[in-house]
Design goal:
This protein is an alpha/beta fold and about 230 residues long. It contains 8 helices and 10 strands. Helix 3 runs parallel beside helix 8 and helix 6 packs parallel to helix 7. The protein is globular, with a radius of gyration of 17 Å. The structure holds dicarbonimidic diamide (C5J). The site of dicarbonimidic diamide has 8 residues, from helix 6.
Length: about 230
């Protein structure tokens, strides 16, 4: 059975590529571009751009291998009925969730800022899930979709590492998935938080899962396919 060099030890691939899903968390303009939610919270959003070419290469590999691809966005209904008051009030941002901004209403489904960045836009056969929380399993059909496809292994990517990515990885780990966090396909507004998250998930013998760089994953998947 092929495996990927990873930390804290090699990540064994499943019997078939069809059991692997690529999960791409919240690569949406709200977090990636000036004028969105990330910017409203006072962050330097441009530092997230560095992962885009690498993530695109991994996405292309996953597409070539017909892996299940799941994109998520952090999104709320236009009436904000799915946004807890506590979330709405949090942070004293200059623009709150639902406020009009340069890319439309902040974190609202269907607004220009809520779209996935064009480089990583979903193809029609890929799953796109709008999630109202930080974790991708909360109030979404993700678990059911993974079960229907007999998925056992998740390659986890996206932004931001210590918020929606880490929350999703922990939720997935608790549900029994073998989770590999792709080191150079995830980013944070805070480099030290990204580093801490990578160390946290793979500590204690991989208590939440594994980490590996994209090139190791792409090489292993490509060899497997040959
Ligand atoms: C945040 C996310 N950071 N996608 N959302 O609020 O990580």
């Amino acid at each position: 059975m092929p495996s990927i060099p990873a930390l804290p030890y090699s990540y064994d691939l499943p019997a078939s590529p069809s059991q692997i899903a690529l999960i791409i968390i919240d690569m949406q303009r709200d977090f990636m571009e000036p004028g969105g939610f990330g910017d409203a919270l006072g962050n330097d959003v441009m530092r997230l751009q560095a992962i885009v070419p690498t993530l695109k290469r991994l996405l292309d590999t996953a597409r070539a291998m017909n892996l299940l691809i799941v994109h998520t966005t952090e999104s709320h209904q236009p009436d904000l009925s799915d946004c807890p008051v506590a979330k709405l009030k949090r942070g004293h941002a200059k623009l709150k969730i639902g406020d009009p901004g340069p890319m439309g209403r902040i974190l609202v489904l269907g607004e220009p800022g809520n779209a996935i960045i064009p480089e990583l836009a979903a193809k029609p056969n890929e799953v796109v899930l709008a999630k109202p929380g930080k974790g991708a399993f909360y109030h979404t059909p993700l678990e059911q979709i993974l079960q229907e496809h007999d998925i056992t292994h998740l390659l986890i990517t996206g932004v931001t590492t210590e918020v929606c990515v880490q929350t999703t990885m922990r939720e997935a780990n608790d549900r029994g998935y073998e989770c590999l966090l792709v080191e150079d396909c995830t980013e944070s507004y805070f480099p030290e938080f990204k580093q801490a998250t990578l160390e946290m998930v793979r500590a204690q013998g991989g208590i939440v899962g594994w980490t590996a760089p994209a090139e190791s994953i792409i090489a292993a998947l490509t060899d497997w396919n040959d």
